[in-house]
Amino acid sequence: MFLKITDLAAATGVDEKTVLDWIRHKGLPAHKQDDRYQVNRVDLLEWATNHSVTIPPDIFVASDENPDRPLVSEALLQGGIFFDLPGDTPEAALREVVSRLKLPPHLDPEFLLQTLLAREALGSTAFGNGIAIPHVRNPIVGQTEESAISLCFLRNPIDFDAIDGQPVTILFTMVTPNVKAHLHLLAKLAFLLHDSDFQALLHCPGSEAEIMKAVRALEETIIRR
User: Fold this and answer.
1) Is pLDDT of 212 > 70?
2) Torsion angle of alpha carbons 22, 26, 29, 33, nearest 10°?
C-alpha cells in the first residue's frame, strides 16, 4: 500500500524534488521509515484528487489485479445519472444524491449520508472547475456487492470549499464494496476528469447517452492505452 518517493516520481513524470515539495509544502501525507519518505496510496489519491494532480491509475493497481476492472462506465450504469437535483448546501445536495442511489436493503441511507458528510468535514472532495467527488474515506466493506458511481447535476451551485474557490454543480458520488475497487474507481475517475473535452461536456450538460459514450471512449483511449 506504500510507495517510495522514487516510484512516485517515476510514475507521475516529475523529479524527486517535486514530490518532496508536495510533502513538505503542499500537504501530501507521508511517513518516514529509515529516514526515507513513503506515501500511502489512499492518502496519495485523496491528496491528488483535491489538488488536481494527475496520477496514472496504474499506480493503484496491484500486480495480482486486472487493471481493467472495475470500469467507471459500469459503475456509472449501476449508480445512474440524474439532472436538476435540488439543494442549497452540501448536506442537502448529498441527501438528495443518497436518496437516488440503489442501495442494498441492509445499508442505511442515513448512515451513508453521515459517513459522506464526515468525509467532507475532513477536507473537501471538490475536484475543481465546479466538480466534486463525494466518497467515504474508506469503503464500507461488505455492505454493498457492486461498485456504483452516481453522476448528479445540481440545480444550484453550492460551496464545497473547493481549492479553486468555484462552487460545485456536478457531483460524482462513489460507493464501493472493497478497498481495491475504491482505489481503482477513484483513480480512474480523477484521471478521466483531467480531459478538458469531457469536462466541457459535463458543463453543457450533455445527455445521458452522450456522457456514457464519452466515458467509454476515454476508457478505451486513455486508461487502456
Assistant:
1) yes
2) 50
pLDDT at 62: 47
50 and 123 fall within a common domain: no
Q: What is the CATH number of the domain that holds 195?
A: 3.40.930.10
Place of cell 458543463: 203
User: In terms of pTM, does the model score above 0.85?
Assistant: no
Q: Confidence class of residue 32 from pLDDT cuts 50, 70 and 90?
A: confident
3, β-bridge pairs: 39
pLDDT of residue 224 exceeding 70, the answer is no
Distances 61 to 160, 180, 184 between C-alpha atoms, Å = 30, 8, 7
Torsion of CA 180, 217, 47, 172, to 10 degrees: -80
Torsions phi, psi for 203 (to 5 deg): -80, -5
Mean pLDDT score across all residues of the chain: 84
Distance CA 107, CA 140 (A): 9
Let me know whether 105 and 168 are in one domain. yes
Per the structure, the complete domain to which residue 10 belongs is given by 2-55
Among the listed residues 106, 135, 182, 203, the single catalytic one is 135
Asked if 135 is an active-site residue, the reply is: yes
Residue 66 inside a domain? The answer is: no
- Nearest-angstrom CA–CA distance, 164 and 190: 16
Residue 62 lies in a domain: no
In a domain, 19, yes or no: yes
Q: Which pLDDT score, from 0 to 100, does residue 181 have? A: 81
Stated length of the chain: 225
Q: How many domains does the chain have?
A: 2
Mean pLDDT of 54-61: 68
